[in-house]
Amino acid sequence: MSTNPNKLEITSTELKRCDLVTLSGRVDSSGAPNVEEALKAITDAGRFRIVLDLAGVDFTSSAFLRVLIKYHKLCKRWNRGDIRLASLQPRISEVLDLAGLAPLFEIYDDETLAVGSF
Amino acid sequence: MTNERQQWELTLDARQSSLGQVADFIENVVDELNLEPDAAFAVQLATDEACQNAVEHACKFDSNQKVTLVCESDGADLVVTVRERGEPFDPTQEAKPKLGAALAKRNGGGLGIHFMRKMMDEVRHERHDDGTNSVTMIKRGVVSAADARDPAATEDTPPEQNCLEHPGCEVA
């Protein structure tokens, strides 16, 4: 688990079907690089099926969304996988809508459903 | 409604790691003003975006440069100003985010400005004679709306503003 002073906690777990990355706290401009680091570690290891559990995320900004887009594209290359989102709080869902990104992701009500979708 | 003028100021180095200070600073401001949650979120998001732009695009992550963040309240509106001495920004040249595009055509560019404009009632970019650039963002009526949530407020206080119901917050 990695923690940064800006109240963001990131936990990555390798499961049988996919990798589960649980974020908690604020994913703002200062925290987005930490999320990228976690996703890069997974994709560098050759794994491209990722569930992002956002149940504990109460704030996000465009910096996170740029990381999300980048790694979603990377994972979807050659149909080898993708990033699926779980447990979005209403405001996070609204930010995704405002950015026109919601249609580009599979979004699940909870992480169990998201993991099971792979 | 209070007419008390209040001001808060933060100066930070133009580096990515400094941006964490912005979140704490704005959280303190919205708490002190007792903003309702939607307005607080809107201000936090717009300010995060403006400071990221200042650090990254204007100052190019040059830690020798400074970014100044000022919040001012006149008892009704909240005005947030971000100022730096970096590269000037022409908002008319900014690429708009491709909101309805397929994933292959998306890279997240333009989302910062997009969020600033959706979250705040007014966004103004200026280049000053002293060589500084500023972006001024105004959220109107949120401080007075905060007072309206006070049980001690009168029945004539204005209704709460919900940024998501505000026309500027509609998805394009």
Folded structure, characterized:
- The complex is a heterodimer of chains A (118) and B (172).
- Chain A is α/β, with parallel strands linked by helices and 118 residues long.
- Chain A has a single domain (2-116), classed as Transcription Regulator spoIIAA (2-Layer Sandwich).
- Chain A is 36% helix and 32% strand.
- Chain A has four helices and six strands.
- A six-stranded mixed β-sheet of chain A has the order 1-2-3-4-5-6.
- The longest helix of chain A has 15 residues, at 62-76.
- Chain A is globular.
- Chain B has a single domain, classed as Heat Shock Protein 90, CATH 3.30.565.10.
- Helix content of chain B is 30%, strand content 21%.
- Chain B contains four helices and five strands.
- In chain B, helix 2 (37-58) runs antiparallel to helix 3 (111-119).
- Chain B is globular and about 45 Å long.
- At the A-B interface, helix 2 and helix 3 of A face helix 1, helix 2 and helix 3 of B.
